[in-house]
Design goal:
The complex is a heterotrimer. By secondary structure, chain A is α/β, with parallel strands linked by helices. Chain A is built from 7 helices and 10 strands. Chain A is globular. Chain B has a single domain, classed as MetI-like fold, CATH 1.10.3720.10. Chain B is about 80% helix and about 0% strand. In chain B, about 40% of the residues are buried. In chain C, about 80% of the residues lie in helices and about 0% in strands. The model of chain C has no long low-confidence stretch (mean pLDDT about 90). Classes of the chains: A alpha/beta, B mainly alpha, C mainly alpha. Chains B and C meet through helix 1, helix 4, helix 5, helix 8 and helix 9 of B and helix 1, helix 4, helix 5, helix 8 and helix 9 of C.
């Protein structure tokens, strides 16, 4: 487990997906989930993957993270082919990701066993503060709300100083108010400790509010249909014309008529 | 009204005892004891010092058989559950041996260990072994994939992974399995003692009957067996509470 | 679970056969190496199996054991299922009966033999009674807990649609509890099989349990002992698999994760 971020590659490209395909075998049939994905993610970028339900966004994230290997094509991070999961790139799950048998401190310190006691305690304290869970250091996840559990997951992930943070619909199980607050928190954390973030969501607003670039996936088998650059500076005004324009563009690309 | 409600089961037991006593009284000269006789039987056993001696003998065998089985079956079961090839290899064998009553092993047990403590411990071991093996296998299967993915993501070494993810994740299920298996051990020991040894509560039942039709002692022994079995179960349940509270395991 | 490559379909047969072959080999060579005169080798067990099959006694024994299980388990189900459902449905009933059940349950059915013989004499009936006892408690517990753990939203939905309590019990609660009830029945059947074999070792003179103990007592025929044990195991497994097929029936399928 590295304790400092790897040096950025010369071209600034952190993660590269090259002609990635992924098929699954089920009941003797081949199901193609990802079809010829090509994507370059730059260092420190915030990317959102959006697409219809079940299109393969999570699969793509898992392939990027090394939890699944591509059927063909390759994923490279800093020029190295991804072989498997690695503490340099941590995945935050939608729910049930925190260990119920560890306290908040225990969870955050989970990846820090190689540090000295003092270092570990310092680091845990830092991240408890960063995700605003002060006062809950000795609480168990069963005492925390859904939003707090997700913040805990993010703290645990950040504590090991990963280069890349993958988030798989992390706010999907939360109510809309909490979701809104969590987005702000995530952006704040991202601006404090800059990392490359790849964020899967099905929520169009969420994508436009958070991302530098939004990657639109088609329905299964997923291809990259489009990439939308969000050129608004943070903090983003959600009633600004540019925001609304981009949101409508995204909705169109996904194929939605945006009225109820 | 709460205390009134609590009286209901007590009242019910009282009614049962009365029916029992009446039924015995209506058939004088037959062998089964009434509740009062049974109580006197228990007193009898206490007086002769047999009660504690036999209880200790039975508990001793249960403890050894149970612990031996736990120490071997749990790690083995966790391993087999984890590696699908190991499970493919051993599951059919386990499924064939499991439905064989531990008591059917008696001839082999006597052959290998003679008549005495060792053979009854062996029988208890057999009974507990398969139950714990299957519990451990199932516990591993039930670990949510997320926990395993997180463990892999953080690059844990295998011993670290086992200690910090696998074991805590399976612990609650294992504890429930241990409680159920302890119940099985208690059933087996009584039956085993009726056949293969010369002390213990099961032996008391056969002995009381053979040496003079002392059915009051037979039923007394049955009552004590039931009570101790219940106490063992309650003790394990309280253990369950402590541990699962400690790990804050939500029941979803 | 492990991160090794997914096993190929042929491996489903390869590994168990390898494990069984290894076990037989170890068994065979242990017998030779310890030069035991009594413990049977795999070959003699196989011959013993053949011998049993040809002697008509084996079939009679199997039928006897199965019959006792069928009657004992059947009675336990007929009495236990309604009783268990009632306990789950009426918490006050559960409160009344539960302590007595909790004291009776840890008493091994085998311990009931002397009492059973007084009530039923010697022969089939006490053995069947033991099977009944063994199966009764798990069935009652499974039914009671199956009913009491039906989510209250289902019951409320039933009321919402104007069903009477009896209708709710039959059309909502029972189907909802059915998966758990079936699992309890399957477990009880397994227990019944264990009890009948144990009971036959003591209280009767027919059946597979009796075959085990008799083979030893009349002539130390350990080859027949082990052969009988294997037959017991296989039949027990067959009963279990048969029951799992029942669980697979579509309308009950919903309660099981695939």
């Amino acid at each position: 487990m590295s304790t400092q971020a790897s040096p950025p590659s010369t071209s600034g490209v952190k993660l590269q997906m090259d002609h990635v395909r992924k098929t699954f075998e089920r009941d003797g049939k081949s199901i193609s989930v990802l079809e010829d994905i090509n994507l370059d993610v730059r260092n420190g970028e915030f990317i959102c993957l959006v697409g219809p339900s079940g299109c393969g966004k999570s699969t793509m994230l898992n392939v990027m993270g090394g939890f699944l290997s591509p059927t063909s094509g390759s994923v490279a991070i800093d020029g190295e082919t991804v072989q498997g999961p690695d503490p340099r790139r941590i995945l935050v799950f939608q729910e049930r990701g925190v260990f119920p048998w560890l306290t908040v401190e225990g969870n955050i310190g989970f990846g820090l066993s190689k540090l000295s006691d003092t270092e570990r305690r310092q680091r845990i304290a830092h991240y408890v503060q960063l995700v605003r869970l002060q006062g809950f250091e000795h609480s168990y996840p069963s005492d925390l709300s859904g939003g707090m559990k997700q913040r805990l997951q993010v703290a645990r992930a950040l504590a090991v100083n990963p280069d890349i943070l993958y988030l798989d619909e992390p706010f999907g199980a939360l109510d809309s108010v909490t979701r809104f607050i969590m987005r702000g928190e995530l952006l704040r954390i991202w601006q404090t400790e800059r990392r490359t973030i790849i964020f899967v969501t099905h929520d169009i607003d969420e994508a436009v509010q958070l991302a530098d670039r939004v990657v639109v996936l088609s329905s299964r088998p997923a291809k990259i249909q489009d990439v939308l650059t969000i050129d608004i500076e943070h903090p983003r005004n959600l009633s600004s014309p540019r925001y609304l324009e981009l949101r409508d563009q995204l909705a169109q690309k996904i194929g939605l008529a945006y009225s109820v | 009204m709460n205390w009134l409600a609590r009286l209901r089961p007590v009242a019910f037991i009282a009614v049962l005892l009365i029916i029992w006593q009446v039924a015995i009284d209506r058939h004088p000269g037959q062998l089964l004891p009434g509740p009062w006789q049974t109580l006197r039987g228990i007193g009898d056993l206490l007086q002769h010092g047999l009660l504690f001696k036999y209880i200790v003998a039975s508990l001793f065998r249960v403890t050894w058989g149970f612990l031996l089985a736990a120490v071997i079956a749990i790690p083995l079961g966790l391993t087999i559950g984890w590696y699908s090839r190991a499970e493919m290899a051993f599951n059919p064998l386990v499924q064939i041996f499991r439905p064989i009553s531990p008591l059917a092993w008696i001839p082999i047990a006597i052959l290998w260990f003679g008549v005495g403590d060792l053979s009854s411990i062996f029988l208890i071991f057999i009974g507990c072994f398969f139950s714990l093996l299957l519990t451990a296998m199932s516990a591993v299967h039930n670990i949510p994939d997320v926990y395993i993915d997180v463990g892999r993501n953080f690059g844990l070494s295998t011993p670290n992974f086992i200690y910090r993810v696998l074991y805590p994740a399976v612990a609650p299920q294992l504890i429930v399995g241990l409680r159920i298996t302890l119940g099985i051990a208690w059933l087996v020991v009584v039956a085993a003692e009726m056949i293969a040894v010369n002390s213990g509560l099961g032996f008391l039942i056969v002995d009381a009957r053979n040496a003079g039709n002392r059915y009051d002692l037979v039923v007394a022994a049955m009552v004590i067996i039931g009570i101790i079995g219940l106490l063992l179960d309650l003790a394990m349940r309280s253990l369950e509470q402590v541990k699962s509270f400690r790990w804050g395991f939500p029941e979803n | 679970m492990s991160t090794l490559r997914k096993p190929a379909p042929w491996e489903k047969f390869f590994w168990p056969i390898l494990a069984a072959a290894l076990l037989l080999a170890i068994w065979h060579y242990s017998v030779i190496w310890t030069a035991t005169k009594v413990f049977p080798s795999p070959l003699s067990v196989e011959k013993g199996l053949v011998e049993l099959v040809h002697k008509h006694v084996l079939w009679a024994d199997i039928i006897d054991s199965l019959r006792r299980v069928a009657i004992g388990f059947g009675l336990a189900a007929i009495v236990g299922i309604p009783f268990g459902l009632a306990l789950g449905w009426f918490p006050s009933l559960h409160q009344i009966f539960n302590p007595v059940l909790q004291i009776l349950r840890p008493i091994s059915p085998i311990a009931w033999i002397p009492v059973a013989i007084i009530f039923f004499g010697i022969g089939d009936k006490p053995a069947t009674f033991l099977v009944f006892l063994g199966a009764f408690f798990p069935i009652v517990v499974a039914c009671a807990s199956g009913v009491s753990t039906v989510p209250s939203i289902y019951r409320r939905a039933g009321r919402n649609f104007g069903l009477s309590p009896a209708q709710i019990l039959v059309r909502v609660v029972f189907p909802a509890a059915l998966p758990q009830i079936l699992i309890g029945l399957r477990i009880a059947l397994g227990i019944a099989w264990l009890v009948v074999v144990a009971g036959e070792m003591i209280a009767v003179d027919s059946g597979l349990g009796f075959l085990v103990i008799d083979s030893r007592n009349s002539g130390k025929r350990y080859d027949l002992v082990v052969a009988a044990m294997l037959i017991i195991g296989v039949i027990g497994l067959a009963l279990d698999l048969l029951f799992r097929q029942i669980e697979k029936i579509r309308s009950v399928r919903w309660g099981f994760r695939s």
